[in-house]
Write a structure and sequence with these properties.
A hairpin with a 3-residue loop joins strand 1 and strand 2. The strands form three sheets. Strands 1, 2, 5, 6 and 7 form a five-stranded mixed beta sheet that branches. Strands 10-9-8-11-12 form a five-stranded mixed beta sheet, sandwiched between helices. Strands 3-4 form a two-stranded antiparallel sheet. The longest helix has about 35 residues. Helix 2 packs across helix 3, helix 7 packs antiparallel against helix 15 and helix 12 packs across helix 13. It is of the alpha/beta class and about 525 residues long. Bound molecules: zinc ion.
Amino acid sequence: MKVELLFSLPKELEVTSIEKTDERLIISVVSTQRSACCPLCSSLATRVHSHYTRKVADLPCAGQQVCLLLQMCKFFCDVTMCARKIFVERIVPFVEPWARVTARLYQSVQVIGLATGGMLGARVTDQLGIQTCWMTIIRRIMALPTLPVEQVIELGIDDFSFRRGRKFGSILVDMQSHQVIDLLPDRKAETAKNWMKAHPEIRLVSRDRGGDYAAGAREGAPQAIQCADRFHLLKNLGEALEGLLAHHLAAERKRQTQDPLDTLIPVPVWQLKRATRSSPQLEHLQHARREERLAQYSQVITLHQRGMSQQAIAERTGMSDSTIGRWLAQGSFPERKPREQTSHVDRYLPYLIERWESGCHTIAGLFRELEEQGYKGSYASVRDSIVRLLPTGRKNTSDSFSKTAVLATSRQAAFLFLRCLENLTSEEQETLGKIRHLNAEVDLTYDLVQQFAQILRTRTGEKLDAWLVRVVESQICELQGFVTGVERDKAAVVAGLTLPQNNGLVEGKVNKLKLLKRMGYGRAGFPLLRQRVLHAL
Ligand SMILES: [Zn+2]
């Protein structure tokens, strides 16, 4: 087999020698062309002036770097009128003039860069035997030509965050070809408007429920139908629902964790030894509490981002004004500090044991007594200490903890409410049943939510008005905000509920974009992210 074939070299190149050093394979190659066209006047030249050697990096071979030593010809251009007297022959498209790498190596680095980004790309290329650096990789990505957006009839637009909840950009998707067609550096109405203005062919804009894209589309593409996408409709309803469920579930959780423990059955004193601090039940409970707290936190942040006042958020979520103020000031989810090994209550343990022994088994009563003695800790620590003091067997007889743990968080519950009943597992159906039985308001909410989901699934937007009336009549306060929002944007909501276009597509692209973002684009910023999204998604 000819070596040239092995290396897939162009037919005008012939290998004269292969030398192997520690780091690389050096392949000497000579051009066999006897003539070449002048790059300026295109006439054929045959008179050789001299030879010269070009060093060009090529694709690695079996993990080794490959360097091509290309011996090229210089020709005279004999056309009198031509300004170029001497020129070097070219072997495009194999190597571009003046390039120091072959086109195929250049493209490989580009592809690796698009998939991995600069820093990670440099690690991958290093492993593969390609000599480059992250800056070169980024330069190669940036050098990719951005194709101008052609006709876009159905446009999907949504936002994504550069940094969680701080800075946003917009992603534009062609709903027909399913391609990401552009990224915008912000999510302002003005920017969206200007983009759409350049595309008078747009017939439909599928967007979220925010006012900015609506305004942008109204001015930039007045000819287009606006369509509130179903994903965001459900998301908004889910958020309203979460507020309502958090309220009811918190009340239920409180009832479940406190009641049964206040009526503990006395146990013999010899069993009052300290049990291990973390039982699976307790861990489970702590986890559930954290989940619920996190759900509350994101709800607060979302409402705040929508411009709601601290007090309005407090009313809506049933949380205290001061907690909300603290959370908003903190800027990130405030994790609870792990409990210290000794809590306030530990000092009072001997007293607790003594009182328990003498027959006082109501936690509320013990808590009051400790307070009288100067205890500054919480009711919960007193309760937890007493639970810890109980031997394991006792804890199992009171199943309050396991009950609490299986109680869904408000977010999970909202998800159960929104889904089709037939698609739920029997466990999920059971949980749903329990939640619906909490009270009449929750049960009615479930019916209303399912009716809306049904309209959405069956694309029967014409039923929306009747549904809105039912929700208003229900007087369920958390859902009124959703109704107001729908009324404000009704034409687009009806279009979203009726037309087959679906922004779930854009959502999918946003998720892929998140992956790219996570791999980092920090050094080169938005332009690099845009390049990678446009060429890789
Ligand atoms: Zn010429």
